[in-house]
Design a protein that fits this description.
The chain is mainly α and 214 residues long. The protein is built from 9 helices and 3 strands, in the order αααααααβαββα. The chain folds into 2 domains: 102 residues, no CATH class; 76 residues, Orthogonal Bundle (Arc Repressor Mutant, subunit A), CATH 1.10.10.
Length: 214
């Protein structure tokens, strides 16, 4: 059975923006139908936000390309291993973000969708939470001490630290020696990478939020 079927109503809502309706019957993916149906609810909501608030920023050429189809399929496959509604919504938000046009350097859409699939629910929770712990104006210029006491709600410091290591292994964080000021000694700290920036751009994190909270 075609796992994309539950997403067809949401996809058809993009037809006024240039998505070729004649192509949709040919789109197909093997994936878990139940998870695809859960994802479809969030895709519908994120596309509605896109149509309402970001229609003028749509990348029409991308919407008509095979690359968009590939990313829709990737989103459905990523949903197969999603453990929570938050993860499903994050996938849907990234897919909606893919539809937008960005100034150079534009994010690598397929790479971003692929790495989001590999995030565990805890890693996702910590990744999103980092934007509350770092400088809200410039989170990518800030850092978080490796041996600090910070965590996110509901996680112990050990669980938080473990998730940070997982994010680093997947390329979201770099570990470097950072000076807080010219008089302090360098200390080991985590900083967000270019890959983290790509994910943040497509999912509207770090000062560019979609409506509502994740």
């Amino acid at each position: 059975m075609n796992a994309l079927t539950p997403l067809l109503p949401a996809l058809r809502s993009l037809e006024p923006l240039g998505l070729p309706s004649s192509a949709l019957p040919e789109w197909f993916a093997y994936a878990n139908q139940r998870q695809a149906a859960r994802l479809a609810v969030h895709v519908q909501a994120e596309f509605a936000t896109l149509l309402r608030a970001f229609a003028g920023a749509v990348d029409h050429a991308y919407l008509r390309s095979d690359a968009f189809q590939a990313n829709v399929v990737q989103a459905v496959r990523a949903a197969e291993i999603a453990e929570s509604e938050d993860k499903l919504r994050f996938i849907a938000r990234a897919l909606a973000g893919c539809v937008l046009s960005f100034p150079p350097p534009a994010p690598d859409r397929f790479q971003t969708m692929r790495v989001i699939e590999g995030l565990s629910d805890r890693e996702l929770r910590v990744f999103v939470g980092l934007f509350d712990l770092l400088d809200p104006i410039d989170p990518f210029g800030d850092s978080l001490p490796v041996n600090g006491t910070a965590t996110v709600a509901g996680l112990s410091r050990q669980e938080f630290a473990s998730a940070l290591l997982g994010l680093a292994q997947q390329g979201f964080l770099n570990r470097a020696d950072v000076r807080r000021d010219e008089w302090s000694e360098p200390e080991a700290a985590w900083t967000l990478t270019a890959l983290a920036r790509q994910v943040a751009v497509l999912t509207r994190l770090g000062g560019n939020d979609w409506e509502g909270d994740l």
